[in-house]
Amino acid sequence: MRRAELEDVLSRAGLGVDDIARADTGHSGQVFTCSLDGQPGYCRFMPHDKARLHIAIDALLRAHHVPLPELLAMGLDATAQKGFLIHSVVSGKRLHRWKRKPESDHVLAAAGKTLADIHAIPCHGYGRLTLRNDRVAGEKDSWRAYLEEVMPHATLEKLTSAKILSTAERKAFERMFETLAADPPDIRLLHRDYSFSHVYSDGQRITAIIDWGNAISGDPLLDLAMAGHFSRPRFEAVLSGYDREVDHEKLEQYLAFVAVQKAHWAMKRNAANRQTKFKILDEMRPVLDRFRRRSLWARTFG
Known about the structure:
Low-confidence stretches: none
CATH class of the largest domain: Alpha Beta
Largest sheet: 5 strands, antiparallel
Shape: globular
Oligomer: single chain
Number of strands: 12
CATH topology of the largest domain: Aminoglycoside 3'-phosphotransferase, Chain: A, domain 2
C-alpha cells in the first residue's frame, strides 16, 4: 500500500498527520510511523473490511481494560475502501529486556496476570476472528475445524517423511489431537502470539500488548502454551501470575502441539529458502527434543 494512498485517506479524514514513513515492522508496508498533531505514533493502514474488524477488536479489548497503546485516531474511507488506526508509541520495554531478578519475575508474573485477564473475555465461534452481525467472533463452528486448519494431517505426514517425527510419535500425536479437538468448555479471546516481543512493561505493570493480527477465539490453554516457549523458569514466573484454573496435563499436550506446529512452520520457511533437509532437521530437532524431555511428552510419546 502506497504512502500517497494513505495520505489521501488521512487528508479526507481531516487529520493533521505529518512525517509519514514506512515502519520496519515486517508488515509489508501496512504500518507507517507518523506524527499526529505533534504526537509520534504508528499508523496501521489496511483494506476496509479488515480495518472494521481491527477497530472492533480494539474496542472490545479497551472495554475489558486490556493495556493497549493509546488510540489517537481511526477511520474508514469508503472512497478508497481502506481504513486506518493510529496508535501512540508504546511506553516501557519489551519483556525480553527485563532480565534481572527479582524485577524480571515481577514483570513476568504481571504478564501472566494480564494474559489471564485477556482469557476472561468471552467469545463466540472458533478460530480466526471475523465480524458476525458487527460482533467479534471466530469464523469456525468447532474447535476441531480450527485445529485441523492449522495442523492438517498432511503436515504430520511431511514431518514424518522428513524424519522430524517418528512414525510412533506421529500416531501418538494423532491420538493426542483427538483429545485437544473437543470443544473447550469456555470459549475465550486468545492473542495467539503472546511472546516477549509483543508485551511491554515499565517494571511495575504491563503497559501494552501489541500485534493482535493473529487473535483467535477458542481454548485459552493454547494461548498459554504459546507463552510456554519461553525458558522453563521464565514460563513458571508467567504461570505464577496467571490466576485462572489450569489443567496442567492438557497444557503440556498443547505445548507438544505448538512444538510440532513450529516444526512445520520452520520446515516451510526453510523449504522456501531452498535449504537442505539436513538444515531443517538441525533447526527443528532441538525444539522438539526440549519438549520430549518433559514428563508428559515422555508419557504421551514414549
